[in-house]
């Protein structure tokens, strides 16, 4: 007889033991939780520090503060203009870009898998007992917001262009005001390129390139783009973790130079 209980209301499968697995299944979820927590803690502290984010001499701007929008932004750092008033301490200087990037990552298909398993334990691992009585999927009001990922992608793509602009402008602010390259420039551009790999390897971008096509033969350009995005998409998890690292490294480098702890090593000019 077919069950009349809605799928979202059916009881979860029961396992009498916590797990019958003999391997160290908990290592993956543990490292995922620690990695995400470390990045969130560092990024939160830096975003609200509102200091050491801009190196005027070489035009280095950390991605955590781009675009800088507050009237309190350091002179020259607000490349796209600023508001006529200073933001209070609880509003980040990059008040538009940071929420978009946060929501883009939170709703990302890979990150959903990561924190669903490691933090929400739904499920923690295959053949491991869950702490939840019922499975509701993404049917709850808050979870329905995950479907907005495709729109956050468009915002993230625009911000990726802004980051590329920041990195480009920095190349024309060498020691004598002309073209120059320093370690900071290499770090900024490395971060931009890797962020582009993550952003444009997104499932939503792949759909934009090749979705809703009856065939590829009559759309050779879109097919070519789809194959390139598909290559990135197959490595989406890799770029998701690498870019968390490059964001932190880029921000830390700019902060150290801006605070005078280290000096930017110039390669050319």
UniProtKB/TrEMBL annotation:
Key words of the record: Membrane, Transmembrane, Transmembrane helix
Organism field: Halostreptopolyspora alba
Membrane spanning stretches: 25-45, 90-111, 151-172, 178-200, 238-262
Superkingdom classification of source: Bacteria
Keyword Membrane listed: yes
Name of the protein in question: Succinate dehydrogenase
């Amino acid at each position: 007889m077919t069950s009349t209980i809605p799928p979202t209301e059916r009881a979860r499968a029961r396992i009498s033991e916590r797990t019958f697995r003999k391997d160290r299944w908990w290592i993956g979820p543990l490292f995922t939780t620690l990695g995400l927590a470390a990045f969130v803690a560092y990024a939160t502290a830096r975003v609200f520090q509102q200091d050491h984010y801009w190196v005027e001499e070489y035009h280095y701007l950390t991605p955590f503060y781009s675009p800088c929008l507050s009237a309190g932004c350091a002179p020259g750092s607000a490349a796209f203009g600023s508001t006529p008033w200073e933001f209070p301490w609880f509003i980040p200087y990059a008040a538009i870009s940071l929420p978009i990037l946060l929501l883009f990552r939170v709703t990302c298909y890979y990150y959903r898998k990561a924190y669903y398993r490691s933090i929400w334990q739904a499920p923690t691992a295959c053949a491991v007992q869950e702490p939840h009585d019922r499975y509701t999927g993404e049917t709850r009001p808050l979870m329905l917001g995950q479907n907005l990922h495709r729109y956050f992608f468009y915002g993230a793509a625009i911000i990726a262009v802004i980051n590329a602009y920041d990195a480009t402008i920095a190349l024309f602010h060498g020691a004598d005001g002309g073209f120059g390259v320093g370690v900071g420039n290499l770090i900024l551009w490395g971060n931009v390129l890797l962020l582009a790999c993550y952003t444009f390897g997104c499932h939503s971008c792949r759909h934009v390139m090749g979705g809703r096509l009856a065939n590829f033969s009559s759309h050779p350009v879109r097919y070519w783009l789809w194959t390139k995005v598909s290559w990135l998409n197959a490595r989406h998890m890799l770029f998701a973790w690498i870019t968390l690292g490059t964001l932190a490294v880029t921000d830390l480098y700019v902060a150290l130079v801006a605070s005078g702890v280290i000096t930017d090593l110039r390669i050319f000019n």
